Amino acid sequence: MPDHIATSTTTWLRRPWLLAVGGLLCLSLSAHAAPDTVRVKLTTSVGDIELELYPAQAPKTVENFVQYVKDKHYDGTLFHRVIPNFMVQGGGFDAQYVQKKTRAPVVHEGREALAKGGLRNVVGTVAMARTNDPQSATAQFFINVKDNAFLDPVVIPPGDPVPRFEYQGRVFENTPRASLLNAPQLFGYTVFGKVIAGMDVVDKIKAVPTGAGGPFPTDVPKTPVLILKATLEN
Question: What CATH class does 35-153+188-232 carry?
C-alpha cells in the first residue's frame, strides 16, 4: 500500500502519617508520569473520531503522530483516499490537494509493536501509511475498515540461518536472517492506535461516493471530507 494510498504490603498501615505522606508522594509522581495511552480527537466535517494511541508498543510512531498534532499539521487536511472494503486514509493533503511538508520519516516499528503486545491491522485500528519503502512513513495515516491481515508485519522465526520460513504458500529453508529481516514485503504497516469513539463517523467516510480528485485518478471522496482540527485530549 503506497503512501499515496497503501497492551507489597508495608507497615505504613500502623503509621497513618507515613501513609499520608506516601500518598502525597504517589500523587505527585503520578502527576508527572507519562500516560499509558494518548488520546487524540479528529474533528472532521462529518463528525468526531477519537483515537487512543499506544506509546508503550510504538513509542517513536506515537511521538511522531502527536508532534504533527501539536504542530496543527492535520488541521484542514483531507481524507484523500477512501476504499470502502479496505481503509480510509488522510493527513497528507490540504483542501486544494496540495501535499503538506513533513519532517523526516519515522522509523518502522511494526514488528517491535507486535512483540510488545501491539495491535494488528483489524477493523478500527490506526496505522501509518507509507510508500513501498518501509522506512518512509511521515504524517499520513489510515484507519482500517476491515480486517487486513495482509498488512500485518511478518515476525521472523528464530535462527540464523532461519531453518524454515513460510510466506504466501512458499517454503524457504536455511535462509539468512538478515535477508528476511530486510525484505520490504515482510515489514507490513505499523499499527499505533485504534478508534475508541466515532467509528460510525468512519463508516460514514467509507461510504461516501468517490472518483477522481486533485492528482488522484480514483478513490477520492466526491464531497471532500476534511479533518477540521486534531487535538490532544490528555
Answer: mainly beta
Residues in the chain: 234
Distance CA 221, CA 208 (A): 6
Q: pTM for this structure?
A: 0.85
99: DSSP letter: B
CA atoms within a 13 Å half-sphere pointing along the CA-CB vector of 157: 14
Contact between 180 and 156 under an 8 Å Cβ cutoff? The reply is yes
Whether residue 82 contacts residue 206, with contact meaning beta carbons closer than 8 Å, is answered with yes
Cβ proximity of 111 and 153 under 8 Å: yes
* Count of alpha carbons within 13 angstroms of residue 169, beta-carbon side: 0
- Kindly report, residue by residue over 106-160, the tens digit of the pLDDT: 999 999 999 999 999 999 999 999 999 999 999 999 999 999 999 999 999 999 9
State the chain's maximal CA–CA distance in angstroms.
Answer: 73
Cα→Cα distances 118→10, 115, 122, 132, Å: 35, 7, 12, 22
Domain residue extents for the chain: 35-153+188-232
DSSP single-letter state for residue 234: -
